[in-house]
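Input set for joint prediction.
Command: fold jointly, output C-alpha cells.
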Amino acid sequence: MRAEVVGVAVLGPGLPGWAASAPVLAGAAPYTPAPVALPPPAALPPTERRRASPAVRLALAAAAEAAAASGLPPAGLETVFASSNGDGRVVGAILEALAAPDGVISPTQFHNSVHNAAAGYWSIAAASQRPSVALGGHDHAFAAGLLHAAARVAATGAPVLLCAYDAPLDEPLAQCRRTEVPFAAALVLAPPGRATPAAAACARLAIAYRAEPAPPSPPAATALDALAAANPAARALPLLRALARREAGRIVLPLLEDGRLEVAVAPC
Amino acid sequence: MRPLSIVAHTAVSAMGVGLAATRAALRERRGGLAPCDLPGTPEGIWVGRVPGVEAVALPEALARFACRNNRLAELALGADGFAEAVAEARARHGAERIAVVLGTSTAGIEQTERAYRRRDAAGRLPPDFDFEHTHDLYALPRYVRARLGLRGPALVVSTACTSGARAWLDAAALIEAGVADAAVVGGVDTLCRMTLHGFAALELLARGGPTRPCAPDRDGISIGEAAAFALLERPRPGARGGLALLGAGASTDGHHMSAPHPEGLGAAAAMRAALEAAGLAPRDIGYVNLHGTGTRANDAMEDRAVTAVFGPRGVPCSSTKGWSGHALGASGALEATIAALCIEDGLIPGCLGVAEPDPGFASAVVTENREARLDRVLSNSFGFGGNNCALVIGRLGA
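C-alpha cells >
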C-alpha cells in the first residue's frame, strides 16, 4: 500500500511538537527529556475542555498538530486512533470503585472509559461527521493503526488522520502495563499525488505486512531509544526519525509475535 | 466497495449456541433474557447471559488467555463448523493471507474485576493475573488468530457499541487494499460489573423486566453477552445468490460523548454511506435491523434517522435486542449474523414483548414475526463517542 505523509506531529518528554522535535529526531540536536505539557483542547466546548483527561489532552494535541500541518480541514478527515490502554486511568478508577462494597461508579467516568473516548472528543472538537475508528494493539497499537490507516486510504482514496497515544496508568494497573511517560504521534496520510502545499513534512510510504517476526531490536543506546520501552505509542519513533531525517530508508515495526510491517520511506 | 462473500458464520448469545438455536429462537419468539443472578450487580435488572461460559476450556497451549471473553469466543469458534471452515480457507489462501478483525468494548475486564477483589494488603494485583492475555483489548484477536492457526494481520476495534459492526467494515478495507484475501470478522463482549454498573449509573437500564425496544413505555437496555464470527472473502465463481456483505458505512455525530444527536444526523449519514458503498437505493432494502437499544433517546433518534433515509413507513424495521439483550461491542456482529439468517429464512422478526410501537414513530416498526422474501437487510449500530456504523447484508447478484 502506498500513502503520502502530509502532516506529522509528536508529543512526548522532550518532544514538544514536530517543529521543535524534528532536529532532535534527526540526530542534529541533543535529546533532553522534559515534562510533557498537556494543554486543554482549545476546540472543545468549555465543559468538555475542563474535564478532558490527560489521555484525551495528549491525543487531541497531537491530532490537532498533524491536522494543522496537513492544511486539510479537520472536519473532513477520517480518523484512526490507536492506543494500547486508551484512557487507562479512567478504567482503573472504575475498577477501584467496582471493588468497593457498593460498587457504584460515576456516569461520566463510564462514558469516558470507552476506548474511543479520545476519538469521540476529537469528532466533537473538529465538528466532524467523518468515520472514526479506535484500535487497540498492546505493544503494537501504532503498527496496527498505521497498517489500518494506510488500508483505509487505499480503499477509500480519502485522507486519514492517524493518532497513536498512550498515557501513564495508576497503580495497581501500572504494575501490569509499563507506561511511564505520555507519548503521542500523529500522521495525516493521503493517497499518493494529493499532497497539499502546506504539508510540514512530506514523505511517500510503501507499507506491507509480512508474516515473519521482526528482527529483535538492539538494546536502547540513548534516552530517546529508551522511550519506546516506556510507552507503546513511542514504538512510532523509528518512523518519526526516518521522517525527520528526510532521507530514503526502510524500517520494520513488529506487529504480533510472528509478523511485521515493512515501511519504505522516501522524502517527496 | 466490492461485495465480500460470507463463507461461514456463527453466533452465540442468550438466544442459544450456534445458528440453529438462534434461528429457532427468532422463529418461535423465544427470548433469552432473564433476571440477573450475577453477584454484585444492580438490583432488578434482566440480562442476556450465555449459560455454561464458565465451563468452556481453552486449548492447553493457549491457557494464558483464559477469561470469560475468550471462553465465549471459544464457544462460538466451536459452533457451526466455523473453525473447520476457517481451516479450509487457510488451505485455500494461506494462513498469512487471512486477517482477524474483531470488535470488543471490554475484552477480558471481568477477569480484572476479579483480580481487584483479590489484591494483597499493599494493593497489588495477584501474580496469576495476566493483563496482556485477558484484560488487554488485543487479547481477543490474538486468541482467535492463534486458535485458528492464522498468520495474517490482526486488528482489535473498540468503538463502544459499534465495535462488532465496524470490524466488518475495517476488515473489508484490509481486503480491498490487498493486505488480506479473507478475514475472520466479528465481535465478542461478555457480562461484567463495569458495564452493568456503568449503564445503571447513566440510568439507562430497563428495570423489573426485559428491554422492550420501540415500545411507547420503553425504559432502557438489558445488557447481554455474545460472540459472533463470520469468514469473509472475495466472491468465488458460482457464489451468485450466496450471502455477502454488500456495503458498509460509518460516521460520527461530533455532538456528545454518550447522548446521540437528537435528529440522528450521524446515524442517517452512516446508513446512506452503507447504501452508497453497496450501490443501492433505500428501496432495495427489505428490512432494517435497528440498533434499537430500548432507551428513550436511542430509539427516538433512530426512528427519525430511519425515516429520514427510507421515508415515513418506508421499510419494515425492528430490534432483536428483546431476544439477546444489548451485547455492546458484539451487538453489531451478532446482528449482522441475524440479518443473514433473516435473509436465508425469509423472516422479519418483530420486536419481542412489544404490543404496539411508540405512536410517535414514523418508521414501520414491526412487532410480530412476518414472512417475507428478503434479499438485502441493513443493520445499524451506534455507540458512545457518537460512533455510527451500518452494514448491508444480502444475496450476491440478487
